[in-house]
Amino acid sequence: MGKARRFSVTALCSLVAGFALLFSQAPVGGESIDEVYKKALKEEGVVNCYCSLAQINAEKIYPVFEKRFPGIKINHVDATSDKLAARAITEARGGRVIADVLEFGLENVVQVYEQGLLSEKPLPEASEYPNNLKGSYWIANNVIFFVGAWNTNLVKKEEEPKSLDDFADPKWKGRLIAEPRDAEILIGLTHKHKSLEKARDVLRRIAANNVEFHKGHSQLAEFLVAGQAAACFTCYSHHYPSRIKKGAPLGYMLTEGVAGIIALAVMKNPPHPNTAWLFGRWAQSEEGQRAYAVGGRTPAHPKVEPREPVRPKTIYAVGADDIKQFAKYEKVWKEIFKLR
């Protein structure tokens, strides 16, 4: 009897192990990306990508996809985010969906979604991303980080800021510059402190330091290089590694930053549904995100490092819900800094 019981337990364990092995080999989401590729080949061999990706990046990234999936070409419809969103909406209103996938600023992806034009079927690869970098109809593809930066000739090592809040210290009075349109900083601070009022208080104290505003993030970087200001708190992190390599006396913050999102979304009822799904899955996979990194973008995938050190350790992302309330945040931002 004891031997029979032991045999039954052993057999049961073997059966469980067999099922575990079977499920471990099953592709995530039910289909492997190569199975989706086989279906895509039965379509027209093209994916219509309404993507704001600059040509200098697209020329490095999209050929990787085309080489990986022979027989499928990317029709890159290139324009600014707002124009691509308007085009997709206009075409749909005219009764014809032409775009398969969208890849541009999240604020404009939200506009397309509000017209009922985007799929809410989740990409299997989305499970790898943190919640603040995805939603029901979008997922962050690449990101831009707002951080603090400074001139190392004008800022001593011991006074280098470690957080955005540090710029509220009176020692920065008359030493700060910023971009007047970057209300994203207020949103990031609201996420950090879990309170709009606390974020507002931090910005009021920063405003008391007599911030000087200039349009254009590249211009902010050049002002710092030239020593025309000691620091800025609305800089793009990707502007700094190349300048530092050329010998510019610059430092920038990698402890925390606010993320502006370039999102990917799949159209509802696209002309090439399997090809659209294939591109979306590839673009958000580790493999695809590595291609974006090599192509000069900052990948959103948490396991894929950008080519330059531009990703802060702690990220406060500006998500879809924030964008829907952007007018509120912008109003507060302008009131605090007395901007028109």
Helix percentage? 40-55%
CATH architecture of the largest domain: 3-Layer(aba) Sandwich
Superfamily at the CATH H level of the largest domain? Periplasmic binding protein-like II
Q: In percent, how much strand structure appears in the residues? A: 15-25%
Shape verdict: globular
Name the helix and strand elements from N-terminus to C-terminus, one letter apiece.
HHEHEHEHEEHHEHEHEEHHEHH
Radius of gyration from CA coordinates: 24 Å
Give the distance, in angstroms, between the N- and C-terminal Cα atoms.
87 Å
| Low-confidence parts | 1-29
- The count of helical stretches stands at 13
Helix/strand-derived category reads: alpha/beta
The CATH class of the largest domain, by name, is: Alpha Beta
What is the typical, i.e. mean, pLDDT?
92
Number of domains: 2
What is the strand tally?
Answer: 10
CATH topology-level name of the largest domain: D-Maltodextrin-Binding Protein, domain 2
Strand count, sense and barrel status of the largest sheet are: 10 strands, mixed
